[in-house]
Amino acid sequence: MAITRLPSAGFSITIRIAVPADASSIGRLTTAAGEAGAIVTALDVVDSDPAHVIVDLTCDTADATHADQVVNALTKLDGVDVRKVSDRTFLLHLGGKIEVSSKVALRNRDELSRAYTPGVARVCQAIAENPADARRLTIKRNTVAVVSDGSAVLGLGNLGPAASLPVMEGKAALFKRFGGVDAWPVVLDTQDTDEIVSIVKAIAPAYGGINLEDIAAPRCFEIEARLREALDIPVFHDDQHGTAICVLAALTNALRVVGKQLSDVRVVVSGAGAAGTAIMKLLLRQGVGDIIASDRRGALHRGMPDLNPAWQWLAENTNKENYAGDLAGALRGADVFIGVSAPNLLTGEDIATMAKDAIVFALANPDPEVDPREARRYAAVVATGRSDQPNQINNVLA
């Protein structure tokens, strides 16, 4: 069975199946799943009796449609009874991914009196007298607010605050796991710039930093700038600063792999939103040879009508030749492609028009701008934004 996307852990399913208790039944299950294009990752025997064996077959699939195809292929086997199908990604999210846990024991009345009333009143008074003590005596110094209005969730668009919550929970979990920082999702039921700035300013006393996440451009630029000006704590826009820093690091190493200098290469960036704009500004500061920014309307160029201020700045500071065509045309002869836009915009043939030893960072999430298998046919270094797709990102970052 031909599938257009690679199986991944993001579409992992567990299928509970009853099969006849004979020597070939379980082998037929794994064979059928493999022939349907799935990657079997586990097989566990749940129960058995003289007539039947009940197993949980776990496998990675390419997407929800492919998962259904795999299940249908198993259902068609003689003697097979598919009893339940579980989506492992949804199972992981049941009840949410993070929780609050106390750092102090409350085992008796004395401990309660120190952690809460009456003892806590003395700490409140100390902070009132010296507000700087809040960093020493509360969670403030190690706590970040992960703030979103849900207007630009991953590569999925304006899904709203509730639908953004799984991403914000995930980001909070990453803060804790990889940085030891306590973080909490703050999803806002407004997409008004003034309201967002006002709300974040109002909650800032509880936090040591603000991480803005998945707020659509161009509003995100104004929100970040105003908050940085108003607050005395760090304000970090992950889609801008985090992405730009990682791309620059990876590109620096990728250029070493292919023996090119940043000052000599031409870079094409697909997507002139928050991430793309920040990437281009950072590359310009590092002395990149040239950049062409491309978005829905094509390459941004001088004389292009009806540009917002962010796009106008890019049109005036990039694209030395003032190219005015589409993304595929901009790619011809380019040394580097960086995609932070939408899936399936390019083909392998488009990548083939790039310069020798091309670098392709197809980072659209959850699906890249070009199939990484196709890109690898023509490019020297390929990376995608998905950790579960085969690519060369680990070599680039090594």
Q: Could you characterize what this model shows?
A:
The protein has helices spanning 25-35, 64-75, 88-93, 109-115, 120-129, 134-137, 161-179, 193-203, 219-230, 238-258, 274-285, 309-317, 327-331, 348-352, 372-378, 393-397; strands at residues 8-20, 39-48, 52-61, 81-87, 143-148, 182-187, 209-212, 235-237, 266-270, 290-295, 298-299, 336-339, 359-362, 381-384. The strands form three sheets. A six-stranded mixed beta sheet has the order 11-10-9-12-13-14, sandwiched between helices. The chain has a four-stranded antiparallel beta sheet with strand order 2-3-1-4. It folds into three domains: 8-93, Alpha-Beta Plaits, CATH 3.30.70; 139-233, 3-Layer(aba) Sandwich (Rossmann fold), CATH 3.40.50; 241-397, 3-Layer(aba) Sandwich (Rossmann fold). It starts with 7 loop residues before the first strand and ends with a helix. It has 16 helices and 14 strands. The model is unreliable at 391-398 (pLDDT under 50). α10 crosses α11.
Could you outline the blueprint of secondary structure elements for this entry?
Blueprint: E1 8-20, H1 25-35, E2 39-48, E3 52-61, H2 64-75, E4 81-87, H3 88-93, H4 109-115, H5 120-129, H6 134-137, E5 143-148, H7 161-179, E6 182-187, H8 193-203, E7 209-212, H9 219-230, E8 235-237, H10 238-258, E9 266-270, H11 274-285, E10 290-295, E11 298-299, H12 309-317, H13 327-331, E12 336-339, H14 348-352, E13 359-362, H15 372-378, E14 381-384, H16 393-397
Parallel strand pairs: 5-6, 5-7, 7-8, 9-10, 9-12, 12-13, 13-14
Antiparallel strand pairs: 1-3, 1-4, 2-3, 10-11
Helix pairs in contact: 8-9, 10-11
